[in-house]
Amino acid sequence: MVAQQDEQAAEQNDGRVAAGRARDRAAVVLAFVSGATDAIGFLALGGTFTSVMTGNLVLFGTGLAHGEADVWAHALAAIAAFVAGAAIGTRVAGTSSAADPVWPAAVNRALLVELVIFAVYAGFYWGSGNHPEGLLMAALLALNSFALGLQSSAITRFGVSGLSTTYMTGTLTTLVVRLASGRPLKDVSHSGTLLIALVVGAAVAAALLEWAEGLVPALQLGGVALALGLGVWTTRRHGQAPR
Fold it and tell me: How far apart are CA 137 and CA 125, in angstroms?
């Protein structure tokens, strides 16, 4: 009986470790998607961010002050869409519970919704000849912001303090605090990886906008699909692994 219990405990621990690794990898992929999507919003969809709401609030304020309707209207659309996405993401993914496994299946449902949103955006983006303008540009900006708002709230379901794929100011602050307090590099490596993924995603998206505009939505679709694939594999194989 004791040997059997030890074996079960070992299996649970292995499942917990494997699920945690999959979650961390998915977070890096989604940070890459966030960086790419923010770059797309800023460079191709009206000079507005899709996840950096602090920046959008500033753009909204300056746009109002200077009477620049395009600036404040785009910023307001992005903010409203992000808030709506975060609210719906909470309803789809739920909230964190101590009884949750490492990777709750509800996160997969939220990622699937995000993938569908990006697919709708991609269809209209390609349908415009890769050059959306006017109201279509604003609508696609809102779709991207909605997707990242949903992603942001879904990630909180993991229940991991400080884990974010969009709010990177907090990640950067956490990294600096841990380094300044003398924590080992292994304790801060994941935060650093998330920040690098964000930058790389933005760089790749900017390059594609310059040289291969038609591939831009595929970058986002591929990233979310990969994260969703990791989630489906994890919940099927380690779905009951407790935290």
Answer: 9
For residue 162, count other CB atoms closer than 10 A to its CB: 14
Task: Enumerate the H helices of 128-188 as residue ranges.
Answer: 134-155, 168-180
Sequence ranges of the domains in the chain:
23-235
Q: What residue has token string 């990294």?
A: 175
Architecture of domain 23-235: Up-down Bundle (1.20)
Name which of 66, 51, 44, 47 is nearest 147 in CA terms: 51
**Unique residue bearing structure tokens 């697919």:** 119
93 near 153, Cβ under 8 Å? yes
Q: For 37-90, what is each residue's pLDDT tens digit? A: 999 999 999 999 999 999 999 999 999 999 999 999 999 999 999 999 999 999
Check residue 131 and report its DSSP letter. -
149 secondary structure, DSSP code: H
Reduce the DSSP state of residue 27 to 3 states and report it.
helix
Write out pLDDT tens, residues 93-121.
999 988 899 999 999 999 999 999 999 99
